[in-house]
Amino acid sequence: MKCKSCGNIYQQNFCPVCGEKKFDPKQLSIKHFIEETFEGFVHFDNKFLCTLKTLVFQPGQLAVNYIQGRRVKFMKPVQFFLVINVLFFFLSLGNNLYSLSLNNYLNFKPFTNYHTRHIVEEKLKSSGLSIAEYSQLFNERIVSDSKEFIFIFVLFYAFLLFLLFFWKKKYFVAHLVFASHFVAFVLLLNLFEYYLLNIPFYIIEKKNYSQSFDSFYAIFTSVSIAIYLVFALKKFYKPPLIVTIFVAAAVGYTFFYFVQYYRMLLFFKILYFK
User: Fold this and answer.
1) pLDDT, tens digit, for every residue of 181-239?
2) Is residue 149 part of a domain?
3) Confidence (pTM)
4) Domain count, the chain
5) pLDDT tens across 18-57, in order?
6) Alpha carbons 201 and 196: distance in angstroms, whole number
7) Three-state SS at 71
8) Residue span of the structural domain in which 160 resides
9) Phi and psi of 5, rounded to 5°?
10) How far apart are CA 232 and CA 56, in angstroms?
């Protein structure tokens, strides 16, 4: 049998060179097409659920499996992160932690510390748009941009972990894999908080913002991240316990600082770049 993709001669059901499946004209039947499509969905579903379960209940194990070569049961790190990213922004109705409306930048600290109101006023003068018109454009842009640039979190934490655990002498890709899974978990945590905390608060209080609720939300998120990282770091990097606790606590404590820089990055990108 000659492989239709690479031309290799083989006798197995799959080409040992490129992995192409042995072709049979019967595969062009409607019945086979439906079976193959259904099998693809089931296969994806099984891998996704297995990866999701391992991510949540066995922190750090996905990264361990990947660098040790146990990959067939799980989705690839970047692929899984992209799926979680799509689910997060699809299920988060309206604004979320990473895409705030222009009103937030104009009226609340710490955004106003960066002279956001003055910057927007200058933008309105140069564009000739009203505040209502520009707010609509800004809010639409920040939703789309926040989806595209969320990968910055993965790169940031991969580089941070590379610096913190350089003495473990791991390839940078290993840190990148761990960071991909970590940020995917954070997005799932944010989604959980959105439905279990944010929406009930809005229904009960009939408002979008409360300083006390905002403080509680930040503390809950930071503590949850720190606890998860204690187990994940211990599993993957195996550092001394005191180092594990220190790094986990530091990442949890500084998480919202990085979120704040990310928000401002989006703000300036939208204001100054098309």
Assistant:
1) 999 999 999 999 888 887 777 777 666 666 777 888 889 999 999 999 999 999 999 99
2) yes
3) 0.83
4) 1
5) 777 776 666 667 766 666 665 655 555 788 889 999 999 9
6) 9
7) coil
8) 76-272
9) -95, -50
10) 10
